[in-house]
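Entry type: protein chain
Record version: 2
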Amino acid sequence: MSQNGIHIAVINSPFVFTKPMPPEVHFPVEHQPLNSTVEVTSALLSHQPAGIEIWVALAWCVGITLLTCGVAMSVYRKRR
């Protein structure tokens, strides 16, 4: 447990070896939505400033939401 009583344990990009991967997947692997979301959540729960990571986390959330809404609408239209 951390000194503030908050501990979030995750396996993230430091455990993913990107060197053997093709260059076009380095960015998505190094900037996974989980990494920024966990960092922001941890900072906010610790009453620390979230910094620019909060915008990265929000961008991931909005992007994933828009993508999944688009896919859901497409599937719904095909089934009608």
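Comment: The chain has one domain: 13-79.
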